[in-house]
Automatic annotation (TrEMBL):
Domain DUF5008, chain residue ranges per copy: 31-126
Lineage, highest ranks first: Bacteria, Pseudomonadati, Bacteroidota, Sphingobacteriia, Sphingobacteriales
Protein name per UniProt: Delta-60 repeat domain-containing protein
Source organism of the structure: Mucilaginibacter gossypiicola
Top-rank lineage group of the source organism: Bacteria
Pfam families from the UniProt entry: DUF5008, DUF5122
Amino acid sequence: MIMISNLIKNTGSKLMKMGLVLLVIAQVSCKKSSILQEDPYGGGKSPLGIKFTGEEPTPSSGSSGDAVTFKIKGLLSHKDNFQFLVNEIEAKVTALTDSTVTVTIPDNASSGGTTVIADGQSFFGPKFTVDGKVSIDASFKAVNGTNGAINDLLQTPDGNYLLVGGFTNFESQAPSTPINHILLITRDGDFKPDLNAGTGSDGTLQTVNRLDNGQYIVGGLLSTFNNRKGINGITRLNIDGSLDSAAIEVINLKPQIPNLGLDTVAAFNGGVFGTVVKSFVREGKITILGNYQNYVKYFYPRSTRDFKVADVTKMNQIARLTQDGTMDSTYNYNPGTRQGYAGGNGDINDAFMQADGKIIAVGAFSTFNGLPANHIVRLNTDGSVDATFASGTGADGPVTSIRYNATTGKMILAGSFKTYGGKTRSGVVLLNADGSVDDTFQFGELTGGVPNFAAQLNNGKVLISGNFNKYNSIIRQGFMVLNADGSLAAGYNNTGAFQGRITKVVETTSALGNPAVILVGDFNKFDNTKVGNIVRVELKK
């Protein structure tokens, strides 16, 4: 009986606790219910019944001034209170029915989406292609391109192109064909499998140049090529793309194994601890610029196969080498201190070599070799700073690219600067050969970002890439073509969104013989089309 009594008592206690819990839940539920009785959509705008049908416009593409009809329902009842936009630019409405709207493609329109705005609400329509003088060349075979940035491109004597960068695939050729940071394509973008680079580079390549004997110099951030160790930022390749190697004698600590007295190494014995950004070949010597602090050369007579003795010399950012890799001590070198001069106090981003051997470098530095040099400097043929370069106060912010056009005799800079030489120049400036500003080119106002690349073509027009979305209040999404005076080139800015940055432009012709450019870089979209860091673009006259 006592056990039964205790059981009843315990059970009653549990039931009482459960009742209290249910009471609390009921009270909370009532509160939630009273809250939810309020309309969560109260104050919202009622649906307008406007809807694009999903059909293609008629015609599906057109130029500024053309009449185009779009299929859309429910717009007639809002005939006095709506806007029609073509890639964010308002188009004039010329006709309206209960199922269609006809508009005139506005001036300065570019390819992109269409939108109707009515009563503060947006309704998105089909993409419309604005025809113009700029278009992707569909005959170029590189469609998917690479899976990483293309940093440099060099045309070979037979008309093909040697590409280097941060990629490991091209047009899905890997892994059946190893593609590690270097590849060869035809002038029309077809992959050429006959490059004998083996497993290629173990790190990103930034630059490629051709020597007088047909061999190639490649530079970047690499320590092996085709699995051959002992490479530091730069090496020499044979004409077929294979590593130029040599058999050398080394110390053999185990004479009973004669093979240990021989080793195969890169024939180019010289490099840097860091990244080579640019290389130039002139009069049989190789000048390398980058972001490094030391030059290194191996002393093989005192090395073994497993341990290499290195001779290290402090050299900041710039050095000149002979074709076997030996450092030229007459260039940017102080024999008194037995090291190079100070270099820049910030990164070198880009450079080019003039015909006379002088080099103009740009970057994120404000001094070079201890002298004022605001993001740009010209170096004499011995590596010293050229005080005659008329850059004035230079740029007030980093410069990301510099390109020189031998036909026009001008160089053009792009970056995040606002002034150059004391003059307002928001991100792009055209310079004369002496470094002074060319005032005939007036760069306008960018909205939404900054330029990251600029190049002038032989006809004077200028190509710009960046992360901006407007130029002088006109929609330009990351890419534009300017006249020689800095204005938007009429008919050349019809393309839609571009995403990324260009690293190099090569003027060529399309399969139809029209003027064209090959663009390479680090970009995945051109004219609203997915691409892989390379595209050939027609620039019709």
